Amino acid sequence: MLALAIFIVTLVFVIWQPKGLGIGWSALAGAAVALATGVVDWGDVGTVWHIVWDATFTFVALIVISLILDEAGFFSWAALHVIRWGKGRGHRLFPLIILLGAVIAAFFANDGAALLLTPIVLAILLRLEVPAAGAFAFTIACGFVADTASLPLVVSNLVNIVTANFFGVSFDRYAAVMVPVNFVSVIATIGVLWLCFRKDIPVSYPLERLEEPRSAIADHAVFRAAFPLLALLLVAYFVTGQLGLPIAFVTGAAAVLLLAVAGRWWSGGRGAVVDLKRVLADAPWQIVLFSIGMYLVVYGLGNAGLTEIASSVLSWLAAEGDLAATVGTGVVVAALASIMNNLPATLVGALAIDRVDVAPMTRDLMIYANVVGNDLGPKFTPIGSLATLLWLHVLAGKGQRISWGQYVKVGVVLTPPVLILTLMALWLWLPLIS
């Protein structure tokens, strides 16, 4: 009960985010209470740090890369191109925007897709005088696909990195399993969003009001470096994955290289366009504190019996066959993520799966189902992921307010079919390549 109380109070403060405290300090305070009361000990600190450090610093590096590219106009340039490809027809543009979000989520993580693409698309649509209902449909689409399309690569979601590191899944093996599964998730996402919002999508929009994509480029040096750097980074992930090199080292090196280009380090900063001080200040440093703090609190909850309960449920599901193990694991962790946040739920799921004594194939299905459930499950509620909470906050600052009631109403309709179809795709695909 003590461990549960500490977790609930910590989660309340993380969601509430009192001024000056932030998610990181709130989680760290919860961890300090857990340590002081004996819910966790100092040995657990080392265990948790070993689990989260690589994922956490990879995430920070990816967001730094995303912020620099955003300041340089990269994402605005891409959005303007896609909106032109829509040829003035709203029903053509809607799936194109979803696909753009899917690509950004794959390479820049779900947070990058939700927090950077959504305001850009919303601003352009408002400039084109798209009706409020249509703007809402595109806004929800951007936020929804950011998570549902964050399956394909290890770096596409913090959840993926934590899980891959915990179970020793290599970058290429993970991609071989999840790229096809992610394809199903994206198609299902387009389908459910279309069915839900087809009446709200504008029939047409005025292309003549749209500026040229090249006008969005603020830093041409960064823009020219973007595609070669991203291609090199992707190749490096596959190569270094075979060597066991931490992903944070590779992503961090790419972030430093882009910082050098943006800051014109070779000329002492002369000609720099991007404000690197602001970029580094806006980087999610609080996530470092949050990761160690919240995971410690959850680890204490696991020590108090949650992991044992979860492993019992998963053992029962595994006994019912691979289909039940796959779909059941995904649904259970999705429900858990929707009420306790997907990052803690990922750790609970991983610890529980690690205790289950099942056949290797069943275990692999449950490992990847844990990823699917924690990537897609947060879409049920706003508290399911920090990205969603920040996304809602960013939208409110842009004048687009989405209440928790509105969000849940949409989330409970859109999430189940995408989740189930994606888990079914995993169940069918993984045995074929194993």
Automatic annotation (TrEMBL):
It is found in: Cell membrane. The chain crosses the membrane at residues 55-80, 92-109, 115-138, 150-168, 174-197, 217-239, 245-266, 287-306, 326-353, 407-430. It is a multi-pass membrane protein. GO terms for biological process: response to arsenic-containing substance. Keywords: Arsenical resistance, Cell membrane, Membrane, Transmembrane, Transmembrane helix, Transport. GO terms for molecular function: antimonite secondary active transmembrane transporter activity; arsenite secondary active transmembrane transporter activity. Pfam families: ArsB. The keyword Lipoprotein does not apply. InterPro entries: Arsenical_pump_ArsB. Its main location: membrane. GO terms for cellular component: plasma membrane. CDD domains: ArsB_permease. Involved in arsenical resistance. Thought to form the channel of an arsenite pump. Belongs to the ArsB family. PANTHER family: TRANSPORTER ARSB-RELATED. This is Arsenical pump membrane protein. The lineage of its organism: Bacteria, Pseudomonadati, Pseudomonadota, Alphaproteobacteria, Hyphomicrobiales.
